[in-house]
């Protein structure tokens, strides 16, 4: 599949490369879906590359979100915002993501994990709307690099003692070094992000353009989740000993972030913080290391990627019409754009895990795994889900009901391209439950 991405590089020299890359991504998606690989075990494509159902699904999600991102940024293209260069940056990002999800070598795993940061920084710094984007870039750099160098040191330490960097080998070895465990998982906890190391995420979302927010929420946060899936297998014994502490920390942090969401007035910040809540639940399920917890975490990565990307694209559609992201000013949308309200309802209901979204199935499995692991967490889990529903209802009621306050009288209706983009977010998110038995074969 990498050879198809090499073909994309030549498209940058065409005048209409934006549309050509979009069509090529659709072609790549079709080719990728029609492959006949055995995905139910970690299959080696070469000495350094391999793939299983987890990596295959996340690569597929990356291509899908990138296609939807191109559809969402057509207005940028029409306004001549140098979108050809931006599309090139995004294809390079996809190249790094595919290699990251497909590598079996720990050093390449680290290399592509950090390389994917460069296109994201370029997007925020080059196409961000305000001067505060410099601060957002610095926060993102500081948090990521502060934990990435210890990760590199841990990988070299493993190579020195075991004379190998093969992930397949380390999956069969039980490591018991506490410092190595903390060093290896800290980089992925920051990227996820875990509560208390999440400050960079709202800043990056607020300053990023719509495509940047969609990629950041839909794909970039999944880098940390994928890394945890791969690395925690190396430390089964240590993880079992520390799991109660990590699960409690994740759930308490999620409750705190839910309360933060309830007094947000900025659309983007609220959805950014809701991503932290979902990732806290993901951590709770994964640290149980049970089959239900791992499968529920896998479902949450896919469901959250589609749902959060759809919500950020909705925020952009709202901003293109009313030039505001404030909950104070954006009221009474149901009276002027009722079809817009329908999409807000569909996306927010999926975000709060209403039937039949994939998020519902993932959260049911995570609840079962956490409570089975320790019944004392039942109250914490209840509070997370109660407050999670509360801030989604708060968002919907404040934005869609009430008196319309914006004085701008000229705005345009939702376009067919935008309906298509929202539809392509919602359909896989809510119809994937029909074939979840296929995804369960990964664990």
UniProtKB/TrEMBL annotation:
<feature type="transmembrane region" description="Helical">
    <location>
        <begin position="419"/>
        <end position="442"/>
    </location>
</feature>
<feature type="transmembrane region" description="Helical">
    <location>
        <begin position="327"/>
        <end position="346"/>
    </location>
</feature>
<feature type="transmembrane region" description="Helical">
    <location>
        <begin position="107"/>
        <end position="125"/>
    </location>
</feature>
<dbReference type="InterPro" id="IPR001750">
    <property type="entry name" value="ND/Mrp_TM"/>
</dbReference>
<feature type="transmembrane region" description="Helical">
    <location>
        <begin position="21"/>
        <end position="42"/>
    </location>
</feature>
<keyword id="KW-1133">Transmembrane helix</keyword>
<dbReference type="GO" id="GO:0031966">
    <property type="term" value="C:mitochondrial membrane"/>
</dbReference>
<feature type="transmembrane region" description="Helical">
    <location>
        <begin position="213"/>
        <end position="233"/>
    </location>
</feature>
<keyword id="KW-0520">NAD</keyword>
<feature type="transmembrane region" description="Helical">
    <location>
        <begin position="298"/>
        <end position="315"/>
    </location>
</feature>
<dbReference type="GO" id="GO:0015990">
    <property type="term" value="P:electron transport coupled proton transport"/>
</dbReference>
<dbReference type="GO" id="GO:0048039">
    <property type="term" value="F:ubiquinone binding"/>
</dbReference>
<feature type="domain" description="NADH:ubiquinone oxidoreductase chain 4 N-terminal">
    <location>
        <begin position="1"/>
        <end position="98"/>
    </location>
</feature>
<keyword id="KW-1278">Translocase</keyword>
<keyword id="KW-0813">Transport</keyword>
<comment type="function">
    <text>Core subunit of the mitochondrial membrane respiratory chain NADH dehydrogenase (Complex I) which catalyzes electron transfer from NADH through the respiratory chain, using ubiquinone as an electron acceptor. Essential for the catalytic activity and assembly of complex I.</text>
</comment>
<dbReference type="InterPro" id="IPR003918">
    <property type="entry name" value="NADH_UbQ_OxRdtase"/>
</dbReference>
<feature type="transmembrane region" description="Helical">
    <location>
        <begin position="137"/>
        <end position="158"/>
    </location>
</feature>
<keyword id="KW-0679">Respiratory chain</keyword>
<keyword id="KW-0472">Membrane</keyword>
<feature type="transmembrane region" description="Helical">
    <location>
        <begin position="83"/>
        <end position="101"/>
    </location>
</feature>
<feature type="transmembrane region" description="Helical">
    <location>
        <begin position="178"/>
        <end position="201"/>
    </location>
</feature>
<dbReference type="Pfam" id="PF00361">
    <property type="entry name" value="Proton_antipo_M"/>
</dbReference>
<dbReference type="GO" id="GO:0003954">
    <property type="term" value="F:NADH dehydrogenase activity"/>
</dbReference>
<comment type="similarity">
    <text>Belongs to the complex I subunit 4 family.</text>
</comment>
<feature type="domain" description="NADH:quinone oxidoreductase/Mrp antiporter transmembrane">
    <location>
        <begin position="105"/>
        <end position="383"/>
    </location>
</feature>
<dbReference type="GO" id="GO:0008137">
    <property type="term" value="F:NADH dehydrogenase (ubiquinone) activity"/>
</dbReference>
<keyword id="KW-0496">Mitochondrion</keyword>
<feature type="transmembrane region" description="Helical">
    <location>
        <begin position="378"/>
        <end position="397"/>
    </location>
</feature>
<dbReference type="InterPro" id="IPR000260">
    <property type="entry name" value="NADH4_N"/>
</dbReference>
<keyword id="KW-0249">Electron transport</keyword>
<feature type="transmembrane region" description="Helical">
    <location>
        <begin position="245"/>
        <end position="263"/>
    </location>
</feature>
<dbReference type="GO" id="GO:0042773">
    <property type="term" value="P:ATP synthesis coupled electron transport"/>
</dbReference>
<protein>
    <recommendedName>
        <fullName>NADH-ubiquinone oxidoreductase chain 4</fullName>
        <ecNumber>7.1.1.2</ecNumber>
    </recommendedName>
</protein>
<feature type="transmembrane region" description="Helical">
    <location>
        <begin position="54"/>
        <end position="76"/>
    </location>
</feature>
<keyword id="KW-0830">Ubiquinone</keyword>
<dbReference type="Pfam" id="PF01059">
    <property type="entry name" value="Oxidored_q5_N"/>
</dbReference>
<comment type="function">
    <text>Core subunit of the mitochondrial membrane respiratory chain NADH dehydrogenase (Complex I) that is believed to belong to the minimal assembly required for catalysis. Complex I functions in the transfer of electrons from NADH to the respiratory chain. The immediate electron acceptor for the enzyme is believed to be ubiquinone.</text>
</comment>
<keyword id="KW-0812">Transmembrane</keyword>
<feature type="transmembrane region" description="Helical">
    <location>
        <begin position="270"/>
        <end position="292"/>
    </location>
</feature>
């Amino acid at each position: 599949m990498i050879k198809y991405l090499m073909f994309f590089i030549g498209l940058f020299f065409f005048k209409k490369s934006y549309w050509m890359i979009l069509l090529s991504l659709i072609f790549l998606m079709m080719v990728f879906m029609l492959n006949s690989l055995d995905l139910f075990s970690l299959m080696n494509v070469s000495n350094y590359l391999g793939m299983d159902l987890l990596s295959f699904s996340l690569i597929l999600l990356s291509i899908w979100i990138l296609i939807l991102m191109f559809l969402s940024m057509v207005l940028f293209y029409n306004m001549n915002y140098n979108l050809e260069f931006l599309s090139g940056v995004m294809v390079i990002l996809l190249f790094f993501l595919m290699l990251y999800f497909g590598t079996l070598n720990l050093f390449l795993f680290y290399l592509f994990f950090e390389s994917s940061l460069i296109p994201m920084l370029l997007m925020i710094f080059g196409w961000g709307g305000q001067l505060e984007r410099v601060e957002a870039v610095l926060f993102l750099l500081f948090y990521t690099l502060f934990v990435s160098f210890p990760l590199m040191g841990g990988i070299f330490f493993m190579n020195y003692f075991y004379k190998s960097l093969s992930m397949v080998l380390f999956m069969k070895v039980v490591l018991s070094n506490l410092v190595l465990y903390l060093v290896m998982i800290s980089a992925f906890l920051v990227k996820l992000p875990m509560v208390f190391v999440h400050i960079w995420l709202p800043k990056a979302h607020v300053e990023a353009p719509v495509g940047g927010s969609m990629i950041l929420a839909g794909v970039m946060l999944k880098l940390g989740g994928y890394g945890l899936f791969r690395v925690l297998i190396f430390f089964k014994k240590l993880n079992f000993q520390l799991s109660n502490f990590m699960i409690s920390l994740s759930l308490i942090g999620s409750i705190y972030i839910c309360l933060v969401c309830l007094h947000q007035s900025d659309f983007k910040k609220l959805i950014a913080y809701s991503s932290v809540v979902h990732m806290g639940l993901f951590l709770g399920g994964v640290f149980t290391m049970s089959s239900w917890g791992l499968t529920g975490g896998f479902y949450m990565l896919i469901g959250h990627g589609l749902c959060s990307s759809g919500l950020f694209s909705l925020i952009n559609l709202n901003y293109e019409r009313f030039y505001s992201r404030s909950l104070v000013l954006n009221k009474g949308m149901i009276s002027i754009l009722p079809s817009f309200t329908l999409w807000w309802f569909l996306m927010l209901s999926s975000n709060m895990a209403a039937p039949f979204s994939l998020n519902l199935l993932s959260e049911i499995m995570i609840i079962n795994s956490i409570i089975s692991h320790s019944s004392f967490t039942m109250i914490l889990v209840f509070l997370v889900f109660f407050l999670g529903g509360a801030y989604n209802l708060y968002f919907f009621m404040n934005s869609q009901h009430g008196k319309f306050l914006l004085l701008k009288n000229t705005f345009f209706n939702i376009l067919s391209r935008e309906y298509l983009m929202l539809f392509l977010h919602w359909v896989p998110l809510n119809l994937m439950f029909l074939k979840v038995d296929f995804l369960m074969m990964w664990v």
